[in-house]
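Bench notes, afternoon.
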Amino acid sequence: MVSSVTAVSDLCNKSWYLSVHEQSSLIEMKDTNMVVHINGKFMENMAAEGHNFQMEQFQTRCHAYFRLSASVALATDVFEGHRRSSVSVSKCANINAVWASLLVEEFVRLGLTDQVVPLAISASAHQLTTCISCYDERSLAYHAVGYARGSLRPAVVITSSGTAVSNLLPAPLFLLGSFCFCHMFLEEPLSELFNVGIGYSFPTNLLLTADRPPELHDTGANQAINQVNHFGEFVKHSFSLPPPTDDIPARMVLTTIDSAVYIATHPAQGPVHINCPFREPLENYPREWTVKCLKGLDNWMSNHIPFSKYYNIQNFSVCGQINEVLRIVQDAERGILIIGALLLAKQLLWPVVTDILSGLRLRKLHGAFSDMDNLLFVDHLDHVLVSDSARIWWSQMLFYRYSKNCIIGSRITSKRISQWLAFHSPRSYILVDKHPYRHDHSHIVTHRIQSTVAEFAESLRNNYFPQKMSKWSRFLEMLNNTVAREISFQISAEYSLTEPHVAHGIAESLRDNAALFIGNSMAVRDTDMFARGWVGPSSSTLHQFLCDGLPLQGIRVAGNRGASGIDGLLSAAVGFAVGCNKRVLCMVGDVSFLHDTNGLAILNQRIQRRPMTILVINNHGGAIFSLLPLEETTDLDTLHKYFYTSHDISVKKLCEAHSVRHLHVQTKMELQLALSICQQSQRDSVIEVESTIKSNSTFHSILKWSAGQITNQALHVLSPVQDRVLDPVSLCKIEKMEYSMYRIQLALPLTSGPKNSEGNSLYKEGYILSLTLDDGSVGHGEVAPIGIHKENLEDVEEQLRFFVHVIEGSEINNLLPILRGSFSSCVRCGIEMAVLLALAKQRGSSFCDTVFGYADETDDVRMKRSGIQVCALVDCNGTPEEVSHVVSQMVAEGFTTIKLKVARRKDPLEDAAVVKEIRNRIGNWSYEEAVLFGSRVKHCSLQYIEEPVQFEEDIIKFCKETNLSVALDETIDNIKGDLLRRLEKFVHPGIVAVVIKPSVVGGFENAALIAQWAQQHEKMAVISSAFESSLSLASYVLFSYHLECQAAAISTARGNEPRSVTAHGLGTYRWLKEDLAAETISVSTHPNGNIMEASVEDAGRLLQRFKTDKRTIHRSYCGEQMKPYRWTLDDVNFSCSIKVQEVGIADNQVTVFLHGFLGAGDDWIPIMKALSASTRCISVDLPGHGESEIAWKVENGASSISVELVGDILHKLLSDATKKKVVLVGYSMGARIALYMATKYRDKQIEGTVLISGSPGIRDDAVRRTRLAQDDARARYLSSHGLECFLKTWYAGDLWSSLRDHPHFRKIVSNRQRQGDAQALAQALSGLSIGRQRPLWEELRTLQKPILLVFGEKDTNEKVHSETEDDLIINLLAQFIDRPLLAKLQCLKSTSS
């Protein structure tokens, strides 16, 4: 221990440092590492007070520091350890000293160590500065000029305020006047201390002038003159700092100095003036200040380099500065790109935040190319950051958990993203722009590169960048996609024309030769938040982005974002159209349009440009102010008059005055039509989109709320446990799936579909699924079709057998939307149920938490009720009195809602009599009968009537005529395709509810989408069962509970009164005499009331510990193995060995599957297993493919393969395999072989033929010869270049454009690469070419066996006709279609898709 005064003085002389880690506001900053320099007198006083210091805890080096007071200064973090001191920084410093020290320290770091009154104190106290004083400021300035000329580095001149500043004027004049002279003689490069990468050839200085604060100007205060831009044109740059305050981030001072030095030393160099106002500059007393103003300086304090380092791309490689930037990028553990550099994104594989002006936001992706698979475009970061949870997660992942973070970007549009970055101050922020200006309003840029984006990307090319962020990127991708789907849903579900809709679909109206010019204010913000690109087929005319051959086109986007003003935008857009020589779509607001109506005069002068379309969003004022906080605190009249500047000016009349075509649109359809007209026209046009400020503000609020909600839910789904919040998304695999058929007894006949009976008992059959994840978690699902489903039990089992095979080993992630489009109807619902319950068990969460991301401890919109109201179901059989008695018993039990099945009697008046007795619901008649019934019961207080008419087009008509409320039921069941588009016709307020059966509409995801649509339009979403067991009923109870929570949250967000509680159609539990589940669903009256409810807690418990009642299981299926074997043939001219695989019972009908070129018998395995319950299925590897081999006996002369030869080989193979006639199923090349066999062996062996994308051949001899030459050339390329090169060329063709969009495209190509013998494959390509095959068109006319033609749904009519060539042949083939086989293949088609 050291306690003597001498020792303390020695300690001071050696520049020992003491850490300031005490309980002060300074330590509130995360990861702050700061030290305090203690002068000798201070430490002497400390020692006298008994404070001891351990010398071995200190080290002796210091790179830099800045002074806070006469006794305390902050310095770099030059030693390790956590030590404490009684010094309180917040009490020992004033803000003037902080800013002055920052200024001086940054000059020192930039190499400006000669500095010629807080500024004077800080400069003189710094150990690395050399200070010279003089009573004549003019002499001091000239001295600085001489120093700069001699040392080749600028000097810093510091003066007080007032006339002292004016005395510096001759020096800048001298510097500028000697420009040419100095250029001739000074050629040495600037010292590396500058880190600016350039030399300068004449002296330059930086003039720091102290000033009085602005409140003293023009008041007669001493030494208070106007010093702002004091030197005018005689300095290269002038900047006036604000007076020091802790309300401004202190890093602003540093970026100001860094920018000033770069400007001063950059060609053409010149003096720079920085004006520094101070309040009470001569008082150096301690004053309180908030240490939070130092936020973002942690990294700066820990090193000795400037805060923002400037580079010029021209000297990037010459001065070796590229190495520093390379090091930062290569070492980055987390990074994002906020820049339109596709090449850089491809090289780094960092997530790309797509600003609208970058061109990548409206990207057009042409096909699923592997080059683009690893690129992640984050379009909706702005909306993601609406969520507090998302901001915390992003901050932890990008800034806190990984200290080596890096942002590469340029100026961005989103204020929310900018504020988020400013708050966290990335360790490395590389800003790239071609101009030399700062453009860093957040003061966070650490590396400023003057360069175009393309030049910067090129400078980093051909360097290795380790891939460290693939899992993190996957997480971001799912989060971004979830928000994108929600925004798309909200915009699509709002059927009125909204401003976000215009921005959302703007890319669809832009052709290949188009460009977009976006106005400021709401126009640019809406497109930045809501615009989307699209995926489409390749086009040879499209310019590939950055000319790099990548399958992505960036739309050229421009805007006047300099000062973000709204004037001159129309004229600028016309100039942009002339300059870029493209069709320009200009999107502006009405106030912007009115500010530049003279631009219409320029528009009329169409000289050397293409037609333009001006899209004016007319909400009759400045709508942006309605989205700002002032809208909540300012009265409406003031807003309209002074902020909205509301107007009634006619855009149409302005256009007429300038002879410009005007189109006025008020609906989505009108907008689409108007854009289409303009794009096809050669005239300039103005499209006026009608809107209102109020509706626009409301819809923006809904979108913001929805984005925040879905982000919170997604984060909860992805990170269910607290300690996993930081982990990247985890994938799990399905180990296996099994199913069992069950049969349970019913207490009552089903009210839907046929009634099953054996003797006097009623029963229901279905399948229970058991799905096991790779960690052993098991989930169960139920598939039990009845009459209202499109499938029967046989159809369902075929699909389940198919999935038992294909689902094994499949990866699933923790977001439900991955199931989109994978399954159909009740099968999909059952598999979804099994997957979700397995995930819930894996994560230890409930079913709803897994699906929808609600956390009990954080969800404010959770309902307080513990159950879901259940609607009772009554079949209207018997007299009105009998039915009324049944209903009265149900009411006594606690049912508040009764659903009565009507429309079963001949006379609707009989049903009306029943309703009058029990005041319940009604059913389905003809329109006239429904109206008659409605007229009789309209005073019975019915909540709504389900499907009162037979045809859906009469539903709205019925509502209008009877004024009765209607619910959709079967109409919802029958909706296919685009749900939102089909539902648009039912927004009528007379439709108050939709009844949703998850097993009919295609699972929980589709059901949730329909329910959300209903709630958005203030309709009830009623979940209904289809007589399933307690397994499904429990899932529906939890699902209904989620929807009730969601409805309450939507009502609150929209400012509406909460809707009454919905009774869900789960009363079918009363039909179950037996149950599949060992523990049955619990439905009882609420403990605190008399309402019949299904307990949410009991339903969750049933699912968590679900067990099957084994007495109900009749049989099980867990898959079956294929039976492979080899069949050989030794012929006179060749010998062959064919790989054969089969599955199924030997006595069943035989179906043989033949693959296409590059395929193998394995391609058919999923479908073969699906059919194996009723069919013996056989597949082969055709000669030249897979594991089949053929060897030619050259001495006998024959050495070529042909369709006829392969057909004869297969005929012999099948003769050995079975004595029965077979059905041939062939795809493409296999279809042609199958058709040949069908025509040759029609009476001996072939029972029927299925041709998938096959052709009888080419009739035209010239076309056939051309095709043969093409295939022979392809075969030679395959033979000489190998399979891998051939596949890249083969699948790049237009024929495979839709296949390239398939999510499993890469897997398909990978499987094709397993073909063993490229030479044999080349022989097959040439020998089996359709150009070499004899056409079979004439044989088709006499063929009597059934043939089924199958074409892909994306095949155009032209493609079909080019194959079949004759509609007469198609009609002829249709006469022989085997109807049962057609039905079966249609089922398989839906399964395969």
